[in-house]
Amino acid sequence: MFREGPFPAFLHGVVEYVGGGLFIALPLLLGYESGAATAVSIVIGVLMIGIAASTDWSLSLNNQIPKPIHFAIDLILAGVLIASPFLFGFSGESAPTAIFIVAGVLHLLLTIGTRFEQKPEKAERDARAKSSSSKVRAAAADSDRPARSDSGSQARPQVEGGAGAERAPTGDRSSARRS
User: Fold this and answer.
1) Neighbours of 5 (CB within 10 A)
2) CB-based contact 78:107 (threshold 8 Å)
3) Distance between CA atoms of 104 and 76, rounded to whole angstroms?
4) What is the pTM of this model?
5) Tens of pLDDT along the chain (179 residues)?
6) CB contact burial 135-163 (16+ within 10 A = b; e otherwise)
7) C-alpha pair distances (Å), 27 with each of 14, 32, 72, 91, 97
């Protein structure tokens, strides 16, 4: 997977939705003679749309498939597209054979040239936000929030002495109050 391919993931998703629709419509528009070519074309079209709709990106409906898995599925799908006329026995019919082979090669090139990864600064910010460390989460927060002090301690309300006087946690003895 190229880090900085020429195609954004958004374009890849649009191409997969359109390509899936074409794979569903082409057997009806061109009148494939082979029933196997028609069936495989419709199944591949539905799969392409389903995978695009389930991938974790902006065009998704349910964000279930991570981008690296989508990348692997696309490589397999490109191989299946190229091999389909020979695997499913419709290589004697020129129109679907040419469509499947050309679509497989184009899909392979699109997959190789797609930027599936996030921008480095966004990935780093997301990693910080998911971290369990409060200091790291605070550093990743929006700039609108007030900055924390270097010591990381927060001011505690002052409670005057007496039996109910508040005590600081045992790890911070400098601000402990005497009763």
Assistant:
1) 17
2) yes
3) 10
4) 0.63
5) 446 788 888 899 999 999 999 999 999 999 999 999 999 999 999 999 999 999 988 888 888 999 889 999 999 999 999 999 999 999 999 999 999 999 999 999 999 998 876 555 555 556 555 555 555 555 555 444 555 555 544 555 555 555 555 555 555 555 555 54
6) eeeeeeeeeeeeeeeeeeeeeeeeeeeee
7) 21, 5, 27, 15, 12
